[in-house]
Fold this protein.
Amino acid sequence: MTVRTKIIAGNWKMNNGIAETGEFFTKLETWFGADEIGKKAAAAVRSGKIEIVVAPVLTSIATAVASAKKGCKDLVGISAQNAYFEKKGAFTGEVSLGMLEEAGCKYVILGHSERRHVFGESDELLQKKLAAALVSKLLPIFCVGELLSERESGKTNDVLKKQLNRAWLDTDGDLLAEKLAIAYEPVWAIGTGKTASSDDAQNACAFIRELIAETFGINAAEKIRILYGGSVKAENSAGILEQNDIDGLLIGGASVEAESFAKIITAAL
Ligand code: PGA
């Protein structure tokens, strides 16, 4: 059985400016260096058991990259929360994958439910973004998930299938296997305090893995990491991480403060 490195990723959304980002990383540095559990976490990253990722706002990326490198000795990878698929040009307010790579990012979150539902990003647009990310140097964390009404009408799997089949249309299975992580984030669980039960989260993630296997074969299905996100906290993270098809967590609110983020990392050790 393939052992997949777990990803513990914090999506700060529009939180933590430059000063707060500096404070966050100073606390994490102390935790990694001086706390017994923090030292265990550092060892777990070094041995490839877990990957720790933080996705700051654009203006905090430079601080996060510098702090992650110096104080945190590369134990934390920095992610962007979004990117545009074009390389450059007249796209006011957007940023390209190459620019994010140049700024020191290693990952990029795409298709987050707030991008889909607050900013109206479509499956068609997200297909272009994923295709561009797969040939960039960044590792995409591609988010999918159903609305409450879709869950209640039994359409969860149909929605996941539609979002994923469109996103990976015309992509190469080997490239996906090498680079992609998927985050299953039921929209009704994001920022609401309502977590999917471990069983529901597992069922959706198992469905996604089967879909990968059917579409791209067993090798891709065994390699691609599938994360759960939606009201993850220290108290519920261990139960979710125990599930067979869940290879990590995408954490919003509980990742903004270093203390609570560290507690969730602890659950993955
Ligand atoms: P939440 O957000 O943990 O605050 O629910 C998760 C996410 O949006 O990725």
Observations:
- Residues 93 and 253 are 25 Å apart (CA to CA).
